[in-house]
Amino acid sequence: MIPLKDDIPTDRTPVITIALIVINTVVYFLLQKGGIFHGPADSGVVRYGAIPYELTHMGQHCDLTAAGEVACEGQPGVHGTASAQPATVLTVFTAMFMHGGLFHLAGNMLFLWIFGNNVEDSMGRVKFVLFYLLGGVAAIALQVVIAPDAAVPTIGASGAIAAVLGGYILLYPNARVWTVIIIVFFFTIVKIPALVVLGLWFLQQVVFGYFDVLQPAGQGGGGVAYFAHVGGFIFGLLAIKLFASRIKDYSPPPKYPVY
Predict the structure, then answer these.
(1) Residue 222: what pLDDT?
(2) Which of 49, 16, 3 lies closest to 175 in space, CA to CA?
(3) 131, 148, 129, 142: which is closest to 206 by C-alpha?
(4) Which end of the chain is least crowded, N or C, by CB within 10 Å?
(5) What CATH number does the domain located at 2-243 have?
(6) What would the mean pLDDT of 37-61 be, rounded to a whole number?
């Protein structure tokens, strides 16, 4: 399923949502120097991505080896020191604005645009910034709890956006989302309740995350940080009522029989 748009208009221009999309795009193309057909350099991802090992071993940093592998100070068999690194705590925030490729960026920004504007509308701009950033922190936190020794950089806005989705599903569970349904070589566009679209998305993250943890490597995140999504979503569920103060009285339009 690929969501396209919802049916709830906003009362105000979603300035912060638009700004976040612009910032993420600028970071990817100009700072990370990612392209359309290639992702950013691994060195920048390791330097500014949030690495669980660094967060659980404060003062010990990770770096790329000559073979292109990630090695961290203090790991068995690792000698020497890493190159100069930004403060580890800072990477929790820089990681939220980095992406591994164009499709990674585009998918995240699509979800942020569809669901972020209404969540921003429900709480105002300043509170939305705080809600978004705290959601990203909660996302990284759960990923670290699940895989505290993982030396895999976690990057992407999806953890913070997952908090937005968690808030949205409580605010507007009956909102209708125009969604592309793809079945093998065929597709159709249908209107589906947000509760179904986002509920299935969350369930998918939990299931995939569970099987990811069962991998022999035991790193809990060799490609997608599923538990970061879970952590962000749960934060959104728990925190939305503390932030939202302008909730619309929404009910889906009536359905009429078609003859």
Answers:
(1) 52
(2) 3
(3) 142
(4) C
(5) 1.20.1540.10
(6) 94
Q: Report how far apart, in Å, the C-alpha atoms of 26 and of each of 71, 97, 124, 156 are.
A: 29, 9, 24, 14
Which residue from 158, 174, 149 is spatially nearest to 78, judged by alpha carbons? 149
pTM of the model: 0.91
How far is 34 from 43, CA to CA, in rounded Å? 12
In this structure, what token pair is assigned to residue 75?
Answer: 């790991």
* Cβ pair 108, 156 in contact under 8 A: yes
Tokens encoding 257: 């029989």
Residues in CB range of 145: below 8 A, 6 or more apart: 227
Residue 165 carries which side chain, given as an amino acid letter? L
For 178, which DSSP code? E
Containing H/E element for 231? helix 226-243
- Main-chain phi, psi angles of 51, to 5 degrees: -105, 120
Q: Beta-carbon neighbour count of residue 99 at 10 Å?
A: 25
Nearest to 7 by CA among 255, 251, 181: 251
Q: Are 168 and 232 in contact (CB under 8 A)?
A: no
Separation CA 78–CA 181 (nearest Å):
48
Torsion of CA 44, 48, 53, 56, to 10 degrees: 170
Q: Write down the residue that tokens 């749960």 correspond to.
A: 234
